[in-house]
Design a protein that fits this description.
Elements lengths: L8 H25 L5 H23 L10 H22 L4 H8 L2 H13 L5 H18 L10 H24 L5 H23 L11 H7 L7 H27 L2 H4 L6 H13 L5 H24 L13
Length: about 325
């Protein structure tokens, strides 16, 4: 097993920027579909199309042989973590404004910093711990614990935070697996996991039997009956599939080709994109508490990256919404 890792910063940055932009479009399309289709259907269609396109890339990167792996259980664990991160984020996205859900998810680098202590044996100094505390204060402010009349339940507000945690755990595996696995191969494992999970949801809830007494929009989004897409929505589903292939490849490739310290800060482009799309498409504009939370999370996350890069021992592995 080789320990040599490629380090081509310019290509890594290019791939992450493409991935971030496509992810912002991905979130927008899923939010548009969330009123009429179940989440497992969206995930299934997107993943089937994405898997087909990714297998074409597999052929270009070396053929079927690159799908062989000596660590199938790590790939399986990574796939399950990504599924959890995706499902919890999308369930929140069906109810929350794009900017709110995205900002809460950007707590992921803070989780990565904390998890690096037990998982990677990293020593975290006081300055980094202070930044983590500041970032989580931002998360707390966005949760608005003092408010008694929130439009959504606190469970919904916690879903993007859970997504951030599971994504952080996933990212601790991505760089390790990227030593021996091609980006397209890792994307295939992820797409296959999404397909299996969505089929299981269809078998259990595909007839909508669990939605009759539900009033929570996120729960309905998760469990409503399978619906054949309208002519217009078919094109949105097709776009999701294409996006899935692009995102899956670009994110895996970015972290294979460049150090996380170089790539990860560019992922914050996703936050202003979420604000812009939310305003243009849905008329949502963050309230004061959300802006304060965004500022604290953004500042804390960037401080962690800058601090680690200066110390030349960056171990956190990025935090983008790897929902491919």
């Amino acid at each position: 097993m080789s320990n040599n890792r490629q380090n081509i910063p310019s290509l890594g940055i290019l791939f992450i920027l493409i991935g971030v932009f496509c992810l912002s479009i991905n979130d927008l399309m899923i939010k548009q579909l969330s009123d009429g289709y179940p989440l497992y259907q969206i995930v299934f269609v997107r993943s089937v199309i994405g898997l087909f396109l990714t297998l074409i890339i597999v052929q270009l990167e070396g053929g079927w042989s690159i799908l062989r792996t000596s660590r199938p259980w790590l790939h399986t664990m990574r796939g399950i973590l990504i599924v959890i991160a995706n499902m919890t984020f999308f369930l929140a996205l069906a109810v929350l404004p794009l900017a709110d859900a995205t900002a809460l998810f950007f707590a992921a680098p803070l989780f990565i910093t904390i998890l690096s202590i037990p998982v990677l044996g990293e020593k975290v100094g006081l300055m980094r711990l202070g930044a983590v505390v500041v970032g989580f204060v931002g998360v707390l402010i966005m949760q608005r614990p003092w408010a008694s009349n929130l439009e959504v339940s606190r469970i919904i507000l916690l879903l993007p935070v859970l997504a951030a945690l599971t994504y952080a755990m996933n990212q601790l595996l991505t760089r390790k697996l990227g030593v021996d696995s091609k980006a397209s191969a890792m994307a295939v494992y992820i797409q296959a996991t999404f397909i299996v999970v969505s089929i299981l949801f269809y078998l259990v809830a595909g007839d909508g039997r669990f939605t009759e007494s539900l009033t929570n929009d996120s729960a309905i989004f998760l469990l409503r009956a399978w619906v054949w897409p309208t002519d217009n929505d078919i094109w949105i589903f097709a776009g999701l599939g294409l996006n899935s292939a692009i995102v899956g490849y670009c994110l895996s490739q970015a972290y294979r080709l460049a150090d996380a310290a170089t790539v990860a800060p560019f992922e914050y482009v996703g936050l202003p994109l979420a604000v812009i799309w939310g305003f243009l498409m849905f008329g949502d504009f963050p309230v004061l508490e959300i802006w304060i939370g965004i500022s604290l999370i953004l500042g804390a996350g960037l401080f962690v990256f800058v601090r680690e890069r200066k110390k030349a021992r960056f171990v956190a592995l990025g935090f983008i919404k790897s929902r491919h």
